[in-house]
Amino acid sequence: MVSEVYLRRLEKCGALMKAARLDALLLTKPANMFYLTGDGRLCAYAMITQSGEVALGVPRTDVEDVKALAHFDRIAGFEDEVGMIHSIAHHFDDFGIRRGAIGLEYTYLTQSMMAMVTHPHAKPDDVTVKDCTPIMSELRIVKEAREVASVRAAAKVAEAGMKAAVEFATPGVTESQVAGAAEHALRNAGAEEFWRTYVSSGPRTNIAHGLPTLRKLERGDMVMIDIHPIVSGYSADICRTVCVGKPTADQRAAYTLYLEAQQATIARARAGVGMVELEQTLHGVLKQAGHGDHIFGPPMHGVGIEFEESPLPPGHAFFHGEKAPPPLEANVVIAVGNCGLYLGRWGVRVEDTVVVSADGSEVLTNYPRRL
Amino acid sequence: MVSEVYLRRLEKCGALMKAARLDALLLTKPANMFYLTGDGRLCAYAMITQSGEVALGVPRTDVEDVKALAHFDRIAGFEDEVGMIHSIAHHFDDFGIRRGAIGLEYTYLTQSMMAMVTHPHAKPDDVTVKDCTPIMSELRIVKEAREVASVRAAAKVAEAGMKAAVEFATPGVTESQVAGAAEHALRNAGAEEFWRTYVSSGPRTNIAHGLPTLRKLERGDMVMIDIHPIVSGYSADICRTVCVGKPTADQRAAYTLYLEAQQATIARARAGVGMVELEQTLHGVLKQAGHGDHIFGPPMHGVGIEFEESPLPPGHAFFHGEKAPPPLEANVVIAVGNCGLYLGRWGVRVEDTVVVSADGSEVLTNYPRRL
């Protein structure tokens, strides 16, 4: 992508850094590095100054590859961890940063990674550190047209993956094989990657994070399939619940209710509406039907470079660390239907990726919604 | 699995905790929870006391599922993050832990997760925290017979995945599709899950962490395929490099050299040998041939519940946070061949999972090693 895009993002980033009194960011989270430079990878870092200069550090094996992909001003190849620490010190020196404050990703860095990037041989003593998660969220929350186009492409691929999984979900196959059918289809339909696939069946549809097992599908089982392809660096998020064979009246009623809650929430999504209001809408329909005790997890979340990102309703900080987000704006992308309806013996969930506009929203994942 | 296994592990854990003056562990890393209780999942925690009592906290949706899988003494279902924090406080109270020290996973917890589990409403003020990574590594490093059997099963599945990928690696298909062929075969061969697949081709085989892209394979390309299935909770790790069509003399020479280095290292692995010595063996062959500047990353690492775990050679703490490990013992499982030979235009890597014994080692991943 042309550097102009990154220069614009870096300029906006610099303004937010100035307001937060941060002299630089030291990023190691691939999604954030990808957003600001065009390349995000493991075992690498990006130092971003307030004036928009970018210094990268990558394994020395990767220097040429990164040069072809990233927008940057300086690049250092390191050969090991000691080299990485020294290259960070070198960049601090080059930028003349000897005091002040830098931003680190508190929602990404483990304690031990933190110790590494703030090592006395890396960071000048008089430079303090602060969380820069809110800055990166604010930058990434409203999508540019090119970003929406990529999510749209990922949503098409997600539909192909869901079709393959649903068709494969027959008695005797394992949850893992259903996941495999989805993933194989995602890659063949043009996904370069995908986030972890969730497939659960029977009683396992009642758990919050149903990673696939070797459980074999049985007639009458509910099957919950949640997939997240990545296309051109952007994700889509779709979940469907289907029944193996003919659903019971109870299963049908629960499904219909959840779908009603999800659709009511999507109908409400537009610029100016808050995540809390959307959460209340989805929960409201379920609570109204007496299911206040049968829901778990945030009912919606942002979608972009990551399949779960800002905005999130407040109160779900453990794995996300986000603050309460501002009201939705046009071109925010969210997934609606992330909390399930868990009835004990089984659960249902229907989730779609939706792009918000000034006067409504558009659903990007359109695989049929039926048991 | 029978609780006896967990009781034995918990007893050993208690002894290590006592030596480290820790009154309890508060674990959130699924791999560690799985080892000590038989169940590890996202959005959950396990509190382990010195006397081997286990208190779990899981989403309330998951309580019945966990009850059927885990060894535990107490269990709390929570409905959200506030509930989780309060349930932690409740367990502290139940166990009568009001002061002293607890162990946390500094190599797993992000800054924001750390803030959560040490929240004043969760943890008594007079309880201090310390890293318990060394304890969990020491516990998990030597595998029980049942664990080796699971890695062995995963290694068989890995061979099936590699076969599918290598056969699919033909001109015109994408790296992502090669990964898809491998993953699909892993799931059909009995893997319940797999860790992220790495497939790189052509010039991309020169980078350290070659996640798949939409690059299409061309005749003459090197293709590097690194896969990690999970069977019964245990992983295997295999990497092969193949050439699309007939390799050049240079490609053949580099491959032969790397294979020589890898095989020399495997030949050296036995109880009593240190990771540093193995590292020097592998690096030694490559350096001897003038390639000291063409290697990157730790040449070996442990394999078990995680595909990359303890032991690691010292000096690779950034993403692992490990201290230098003791000499190998029988029934330590390692992957040998994790550092590549990176020659600029392309690279090669051959990696196998190996179980160490008193007088040698056994290679568990036996897919043919040829370009």
Q: What does the oligomeric state look like here?
A: homodimer
Q: Tell me the fraction of residues in β-strands of chain A, as a range.
A: 15-25%
Q: List the chains of the largest interface with their residue counts.
A: A-B, 68 and 68 residues
CATH topology of the largest domain in chain A: Creatine Amidinohydrolase
CATH superfamily grouping of the largest domain in chain A: Creatinase/methionine aminopeptidase superfamily
Structurally, how many domains make up the residues of chain A? 2
Shape of chain A: elongated
Q: What characterizes the major β-sheet of chain A?
A: 6 strands, mixed
**Helical residue percent of chain A?**
25-40%
Order of strands in the sheet with the most strands of chain A? 4-3-2-1-5-6
Mean pLDDT of chain A: 95
Strand elements of chain A, count: 17
Order of helices and strands of chain A: HEHEEHEHEHEHHHEEEEHHEEEEEEE
Termini separation of chain A (Å)?
A: 42 Å
CATH architecture title of the largest domain in chain A = Alpha-Beta Complex
Which spans of chain A have pLDDT < 50 for at least 5 consecutive residues? none
Report the CATH C-level class of the largest domain in chain A.
Answer: Alpha Beta
